[in-house]
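lol ok so funny story. i was supposed to be doing the assay writeup but got distracted and ended up predicting the structure for this chain instead. priorities right. anyway since i did it might as well share w the group, maybe its usefull for someone
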Amino acid sequence: MKSSPKLSDHFTFGKLMRFTLPTMLMMVFTSVYSVVDGFFVSNYAGETQFSAVNFAFPLLMILWAPGFVFGSGGSALISKTLGEGDGKRANRQFSLFVYFSAAVGLLLGVAAFIFMRPLLAAIGGSGELLDYGVLYGRIIALSIPFGVLQVAFQSYFSVAERSRAGLWVTVASGVANMILDVVFVGLFRWGITGAAAATFISQVVGGGVPLIYFARKNTSLLRLGRTRWDGRALVRGATNGASEMLSSVTSSLVGMLYNYQLLRHAGERGVAAYGVLMYVNFIFIAIFIGFTMGTTPIIGFHYGAENHAELKNMKRKSVFFILGAAAAMLALALALGGVISRVFVGYDAELMAMSHRAFMICAFSFPFAGFGIFASAFFTALNNGLVSGVLSGLRTIVFQVAAILLLPLAFGLDGIWFSVVAAEAAAMLASVFALILFKRRYQY
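and the output, tada:
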């Protein structure tokens, strides 16, 4: 049996796949159990409650954003510190990021519980859609501290060279969620309340188990312990991880804009169709996100060690992987679009047709999306939060908002679906330009 790759290794393509496969599976599995929520609510509670879950979900994703900030930004700083050979300082930084993330998550959860109704009403919620959305959102809000930690630990497990342990935690969390969906929604028929309760418990597992693991004595590179206030490290981590937070927050805001436009052009059916698209998109995009989560600590380590040859190696192999994965995803999406739509909303022929058409159009965004995600994460790993943030902002704010506002004027409902493709294509061009522009500076 081959030994697990180390951050300090030279990475062949096979070794890179072994190191990043657990994080890819981890993110895919996280997406799959989110999809299971949608499946059970749609098929056992009906279209209105399914629409309510999809309506509230973008807002809830914003609340998990600190996990991306301190997970991605913190892991880049910690891996750079490890590359510089200072393990003690890396552990102090790790502990500080974890404790601070939990505190921020607690504050956000309390605020979300209190203000859930006015927030959802402000983005167009009314009637049963609003009532169900508030019910779902408030239950999930109680788990936000654990959700923030779960997101952050997904990055920290890679830095600790324990990606497989991170995968098993995610599997445990996901299996708990799926089993409880079957029991609460399928058997007990608790509807949206049962789905929210299942997600709540799974978040507690996903965020709580890593706390116990890293607090106990272990053989990984990281361990929770005493720390001291280091405002500079927090600011550096937050600034560096701001692009990932920006991506999460703005994706959620753009999701709200999509829902608003869809309510105008297609009513609640449009929101439900977008829900099908969103759930499946999670799974495909999760492969790119998981891959970049796995590569970020490697790139950060070798940047700290000033190993420019390995930076070049990582960039080259990463680009090859993304191009190959994107082609495979496009083929798979086009082949399975009808089946996926039938699984989720086969009970409504009109809604199924709308969902299928949306998926067939949006599938062409996959060849472009992976490159934009990787480029932003690449600069995060190089501790250049500014470039990473600009790329993320262009991808998730400028291009997406412009497309979703302008294309429906010319193409109606189809323009909403085409906007995803147009925005990702523009983001890829910006990413290629940035990688060329900074090549000499970082010597990759």
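The first helix runs from residue 13 to 45. DSSP finds 15 helices and no strands in the chain.
back to the writeup now i swear
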